[in-house]
Amino acid sequence: MDLVFAEATPSGRGGVSVIRLSGPGSRRAAERLAGDLPQPRHAYFRTLRDGREELDQALVLWFEAGSSFTGEEVAELHLHGAPVVARRVGSALAALGARPAEAGEFTRRAFLNGRMDLAEVEGLGDLLEAETDAQRRLALRAAGGELGRKADGWREMLIRAGALVEASVDFADEEVPDEVPDEVFDLLRRLTTDLEQEISGFRAAERLRTGFEVAVIGAPNAGKSSLINRIARREVALVSDIAGTTRDVIELRLDLRGLAVTLLDTAGLRATEDHVEGLGVRRARERAEAADLRLHISPEGHVDSALWRDGDILVRSKSDLIAQGDGLAVSALSGEGIEGLLAELHDRLALCVAGAGIVSHERQAAALRDARDALAGVSDLPPELVAEMIRQAAASLDRLVGRIGAEEYLDVIFTSFCIGK
Ligand SMILES: Nc1nc2c(c(=O)[nH]1)N(C=O)[C@@H](CNc1ccc(C(=O)N[C@@H](CCC(=O)O)C(=O)O)cc1)CN2
Ligand SMILES: Nc1nc2c(ncn2[C@@H]2O[C@H](COP(=O)(O)OP(=O)(O)OP(=O)(O)O)[C@@H](O)[C@H]2O)c(=O)[nH]1
Ligand SMILES: [Mg+2]
C-alpha cells in the first residue's frame, strides 16, 4: 500500500484544516515536517518546517495501524485553516513520496483492511449525505455495524443447520433414503422469518434515507407557489395573479422535524393552448404521480380526482378570502394554518416510516431477498440440495456485508464519497 494524504476538512478558509496521511511511513512523513512524535495518539503542538522554511504551527498526532480509522499507520496534521497552508504542506508531503488520496480512499482502505464491512461503509456514506436528524440516526446505526452483527447471527444459524444436514447425510443408512432432521427446518424457518422482517422494513428505511417527495398541485392561481414561499420563508418561486406563472418544477428541500422532504412546486393543472405551459402541466402530472404524497391546493377545496391517492392532503388555500369549505384551511398571506399543515404532513410521512428497518439500500435488500429465496421450499428437497441451498443463503449474507462480490460496488460507493474521507 502506498502512502496517501488529503485534506480531511473541506478545502478553503476555516478555523482549522486537517490533513490526514494513511499508509506505511505516515508517522515518518509527519515527523519530517514536525520533528519527533514519540507517542501514538498523543497530540503535539509543533512548528511545521519544510527544510528551513517555516510552514505553520500545528497540532500533530499519529496512530498505529491497529488503532486507526483505516487500519494502517495514520498521521494527522491540524493546521491553521488558510488554503495556502494546506497547499504548501501538501507539496511538502508529495515531495516526501506521499500521493493525494482519491475520493473515499481512506474508507476504502478501512474496508479492505477489514475495519468496516460494506454495510457500514454504506452507512458512513449515508451519514456524509444526511441532512436531517432522522437520516443521521439511521446512518449512524448502519455505520455502527448493526446489520453486520445481524448477518453474523444469521450465518451462525446457517452453519448450525448446515452441520446438521451434513451429519444426516454422512451417517444415513445406505438402504434408507437420507432424512433431514426437523431441527434444520425449524432453524431455517426462524431465519426466514427474521429475513422477511428485515426485508419488510426496507422501503420505509429507504424513504427515510433518501427523503420524501411531496408534490404541491392544483389549478393555476390556486396559491401553490405562494404557499411554498411561505413555508420556505423566502421567494423560491415566482408569484403573480396571472394564471400559468409556474412552468418548471421547483424543488424546496425541507427538514420537517427531522424528516427529509422535498416539496415540489408545479405548474397549475389545466388544458392550455400555450405550448410551453402545456409542457409544464405534463411534467407536473408526472411528478405528482411519482411523488410519495400530494398536497391538493384549492381555494374552493377542489381536487383533481385523477391524481388523488390515499393519504393525500386537501388544502383549502387563501383562507383569508374564503371563510369555509373542505380541507385544511391555510393562508399564504396571513400564515394561518401553515404550522398545522406541516404538522399534518409530518404525521402522515412519519406513518410511512414507522416500520423502517436498518436495510436502506437496494443492494442490501437484494442480498437479503436472495438469502430468503434460497431457503424457500427447502423442506421438499433431499439433504444434498438442502445443504446446497444453505450454502447459497450463506453466500448471499456474505455479499450483504461485502465479504464476497464487493468489487463491483466499491467504485460506485466511493466515487460518491468526498476526497479526504
Ligand atoms: N481527527 C479525527 N477525527 C475523526 C476521525 C479521524 O480520522 N480523525 N474519524 C474518521 O474519519 C472519525 C472517527 N472515526 C474513527 C473510527 C475508528 C477509530 C479507531 O481506530 N478506533 C480503534 C480504537 C481506538 C481507541 O479506542 O484507542 C479501534 O477501533 O481499534 C478511530 C477513529 C470522526 N472523527
Ligand atoms: N389573499 C390571498 N391571496 C393569495 C394567497 N395565496 C396566493 N394568493 C394570490 O393568488 C395569486 C396566485 O398565486 P400563486 O402562488 O402564483 O398561484 P399558483 O398556484 O402558484 O399559480 P400558477 O403558478 O399559475 O399555477 C397571486 O396573486 C397571489 O398573491 C393567499 O393566501 N391569500
Ligand atoms: Mg405557481
Automatic annotation (TrEMBL):
Tagged with keyword Hydrolase: yes
InterPro entries hit by this protein: G_TrmE, GTP-bd, GTP-bd_TrmE_N, GTPase_MnmE, MnmE_helical, Small_GTP-bd
Localization terms from the record: Cytoplasm
Listed PROSITE patterns: G_TRME (PS51709)
Primary site of residence: cytoplasm
Residues that hold GTP according to the record: 221-226, 240-246, 265-268
Source species, domain of life: Bacteria
Assigned keywords, A-Z: Cytoplasm, GTP-binding, Hydrolase, Magnesium, Metal-binding, Nucleotide-binding, Potassium, tRNA processing
Residues given in the record as K(+) binding sites: 221, 240, 242, 245
Residue ranges of every copy of the TrmE-type G domain listed in the record: 211-350
The protein's role, per its UniProt record: Exhibits a very high intrinsic GTPase hydrolysis rate. Involved in the addition of a carboxymethylaminomethyl (cmnm) group at the wobble position (U34) of certain tRNAs, forming tRNA-cmnm(5)s(2)U34.
HAMAP family with a match to the protein in the record: GTPase_MnmE
Family: Belongs to the TRAFAC class TrmE-Era-EngA-EngB-Septin-like GTPase superfamily. TrmE GTPase family.
Alphabetized PANTHER family for the sequence: TRNA MODIFICATION GTPASE GTPBP3, TRNA MODIFICATION GTPASE GTPBP3, MITOCHONDRIAL
Name of the protein in question: tRNA modification GTPase MnmE
Organism: Paracoccus marinaquae
